[in-house]
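Researcher: I've got a protein sequence and the SMILES for flavin-adenine dinucleotide. Could you write out the 3D structure of the bound complex as structure tokens? I'd like something to compare against our soaking experiments later this week.
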Amino acid sequence: MLLQLENLPAQGSEFDVVVIGAGGAGLAAALFAGLAGQKVLLVEHSEYVGGTTALSGGTTWIPSTLHSARVNPQDTLAEAARYLDNAIGERADPALRQAFLQAGPAAVAALEAATEVKFRPYPKHPDYISDLPGSTLNGRALEPLPFDGRLLGELFAVLRPPIPEFTVLGGMMVDRTDINHLLKLKSSLPSFRHSLKLLLRHASDRLSYPRAPGW
Ligand SMILES: Cc1cc2nc3c(=O)[nH]c(=O)nc-3n(C[C@H](O)[C@H](O)[C@H](O)COP(=O)(O)OP(=O)(O)OC[C@H]3O[C@@H](n4cnc5c(N)ncnc54)[C@H](O)[C@@H]3O)c2cc1C
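Model: Sure. Here is the predicted complex with flavin-adenine dinucleotide in place.
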């Protein structure tokens, strides 16, 4: 972020942790350091926070969370490790992916307990290389729940806008549930109701905000 001069840390300020880049990885690192009581400086060189992450679909691949257990209770960390071993092979240190697998479920649980970040499992979301041994049809890919951008207050203005391809009607953010309802708008009463609510909320948001806060 191009910090205004008055927002720059005072000369001689000290921090426990300095994070470079406010995308998903940097924001998560800064957040967890903050939750652990560290004094954090987050440095971003563009005018927005969010990086490529803000342009993405937001799907988060973390096996063996509580969410995974809801849709695929048969899945295990050992199976996920088998999948990653087959997908990655010798191209990276196996200890790194073991650390990722071991820490992932607790990281998701901590994030959900202490912040506004919440997830749900996709009922159907196969692993990308679905013919590899250890792959699953669901449970590992998590979808972030819609977040009310208004909670960010003035900081909403520095959140990188989504790409037009992921919005409809000039900026309305939709998730897979919304898309399914919009497609059945004319043939199902519940879908009509859902779509109407979505459209009215978007219209009302656009009267107050230059872009939809996407919740
Ligand atoms: C259309 C699209 C859809 C996608 N969908 C998914 C998906 O559903 N699931 C998934 O897992 N992945 C998806 N991806 C990929 C995913 O978005 C990226 O892998 C991920 O966002 C990378 O996160 P990051 O934090 O490493 O980098 P970024 O989110 O790009 O953040 C890096 C940040 O660092 C800043 N920066 C860079 N250099 C400096 C510097 N020298 N000083 C200060 N700041 C600096 C940048 O400005 C940026 O803000 C998608 C990508 C795209 C483009």
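Model: Residues 60-144 form one domain. Residues 181 and 194 are 7 Å apart (CA to CA).
Researcher: Great, I'll pass this along to the crystallography team.
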